[in-house]
Write a structure and sequence with these properties.
This protein has one domain: Clam (outer membrane lipoprotein receptor (LolB), chain A), CATH 2.50.20. 14% of the residues lie in helices and 43% in strands. It is built from four helices and 13 strands.
Amino acid sequence: MNTLAQKIIDAHGGLETWQRFSSLTAHLKQGGALWALKGHAGTLDETNVTVGLGDEWASHHPFGTDGKVSRFQPGKIEIQDGTGQPIDTLADPRASFAGHTLETPWTEPQLAYFAGIAMWTYLNMPFLLAKPGVVCEQLEDWSENGETWQRLRVTFPQDIATHSTVQTLYVDQDGLLKRHDYDVEIAGGTSGAHYVSGYIDVQGLKFPTERRIFPRLPDGTSLSEPLVVSIDLSNFALHI
């Protein structure tokens, strides 16, 4: 494994500890401009999210009103009612975003797809670096706000559904994530700079509790506004 990738994984608790668990649940509060722009203001302002660790799936519960629940898998989205009965489905969901721009509204299943790939990626990072087919390359260091961060370019294989094929991680001297860059392919390749902070220890693994996503410029710098998405996480629980 790439030396920097190994350092990052170890700093977050180590691959052996992560592999003891099959899923993670957390309480989720979200804000930012994206949700209203996509036609879903309030739907996921406060909810719970469960993601598979390793296996790619995620669920938001509740998903909006009436006790609905989402179920994301790369090849299928399902929205269920409060009794677990499917009320909306979308097969081959990524193909449904063809031609989308940042301003294109989403259907509920499309919202569930975006939220699913986002939270699965975020909560499995950095342990995704150890998955088969993931390629890592260390880049030149980056200076921001008086700090120097190491950078890792990550290229994902086609069988992992995530924001973009190529992403960049920024880490401090201890190997903890500070920033995560990607281009949201399903929203016209919109570029984001995703800052993480507020680390806590959860059953031997380290997770950030605060995430703030801002626009990213071509030179790699980020804008301080608008706030595209804010994510605050609490009540983490790992499940065997």
